[in-house]
Specification:
single chain, 13 helices, 275 residues, four-stranded mixed sheet, alpha+beta
Length: 275
C-alpha cells in the first residue's frame, strides 16, 4: 500500500507496511530489562462495559418467571448499556439487532429487546465481547445457556470455552449419553460429541445393554467409526486429518486463521482445502 506525503509542496511516495491479516501467527515480542507498563487499552475498553454515560445503544433483557406462590408470571426487565462501534467490531450479529427504525429508549438511544437469554448469561456474553473473561465456575453453572447464546450471536471463542467447561464437568453415562449427543449435534459442539463417542466406544457392552444404539442417529455413524479406529490407525497421510481429535483440528485451524467452529467434517474439509 502507498501513501503520498507532501513535503514542501513535493509529493513523496511512501510505502505503508501491509496490515497483518493473520493475527494468530506468532510474533517476536520486544522485551526490555526496564519496567514498562502493559498496554492499558483492554482495561480501558473493559471499563466502558455497561457504562450508561458513554453508551449509545441499549439492550433490554426481558424474562418471565412465576411469582412466589406460582399463581401468575411476573415479567422482569434488565438493562445493559453498550457501544455500537465495539459491537460492530467484536459482535456483528449483536450489533445487527439495532436497525435505524428500531426501538428508541427514553434517552434517545437505539434499543433492542432480548427475550430468550437469561440476564446472567447475557451479562457474561456482553462482558466477553468487551474483552472480559468468564470464571470457570460460572462457565460450568451456565454452560448450556452460554453455548446457546454464543452460538446464536457467533461469539465463537466463548462458545468453545463453555463447551470445554461442560465437557470437563460432566460425566458421560448411559443415562445421559444420547441426550448429550443430540444436543452436541444440534449446537455443533464437536468436542462434546467426541466425548460421547469416546464413552460409547469404551463402553460398548453397557451401551448395548441400555439399548443406546436403538435410536442412534445414522448420520453420526462415521464419527463413532473414527473413534473406534483411531487407536489402530496406520498413520497414512491421507487419514491424518480424519484421525485427529477435535482439539488438534481446532488448534491447526486457529494457527491458519480459519474458522474453528463447526463439525468434524467441516473442520477437516477446511484443513484439506487449505493444504
Amino acid at each position: 500500500m502507498f501513501a503520498f506525503h507532501n513535503s514542501h509542496h513535493r509529493h513523496v511516495l511512501v510505502r505503508v507496511p501491509p496490515l497483518d491479516k493473520n493475527p494468530t501467527k506468532k510474533r517476536k515480542v520486544s522485551k526490555s530489562k526496564h519496567f514498562v507498563p502493559e498496554n492499558s487499552l483492554v482495561s480501558k475498553i473493559q471499563g466502558m462495559f455497561n457504562d450508561e454515560e458513554t453508551s449509545d445503544v441499549l439492550f433490554e433483557v426481558i424474562t418471565t418467571e412465576p411469582d412466589e406462590d406460582g399463581s401468575k408470571r411476573v415479567k422482569t426487565s434488565t438493562l445493559f448499556h453498550a457501544h455500537r462501534l465495539i459491537l460492530q467490531v467484536c459482535a456483528p450479529m449483536l450489533e445487527a439487532l439495532f436497525e435505524p427504525t428500531y426501538l428508541l429508549s427514553s434517552d434517545g438511544k437505539l434499543a433492542a429487546t432480548i427475550t430468550d437469554i437469561k440476564p446472567a448469561v447475557f451479562h457474561h456474553l456482553l462482558w466477553y465481547v468487551y474483552g472480559g473473561s468468564v470464571p470457570k465456575e460460572d462457565l460450568e453453572t451456565h454452560a448450556k445457556g452460554i453455548i446457546e447464546a454464543a452460538d446464536k450471536y457467533n461469539i465463537v471463542n466463548l462458545k468453545l470455552e463453555a463447551e470445554a467447561a461442560y465437557v470437563d464437568s460432566t460425566a458421560i453415562t448411559a443415562r445421559n449419553a444420547i441426550d448429550n449427543l443430540l444436543y452436541a449435534d444440534a449446537k455443533n459442539c464437536a468436542l462434546l460429541k467426541e466425548a460421547v463417542m469416546d464413552y460409547l466406544a469404551a463402553n460398548g457392552q453397557e451401551a448395548i445393554r441400555h439399548r443406546l444404539f436403538d435410536n442412534f442417529p445414522s448420520h453420526l455413524v462415521n464419527d463413532l467409526s473414527v473413534t473406534t479406529t483411531r487407536k489402530i490407525s496406520t498413520g497414512n497421510k491421507r487419514d491424518r486429518f480424519n484421525m485427529m481429535r477435535v482439539s488438534e483440528l481446532r488448534r491447526k485451524l486457529h494457527k491458519k486463521g480459519l474458522d474453528v467452529d463447526g463439525s468434524r467434517e467441516a473442520m477437516i474439509a477446511a484443513l484439506k482445502g487449505d493444504s
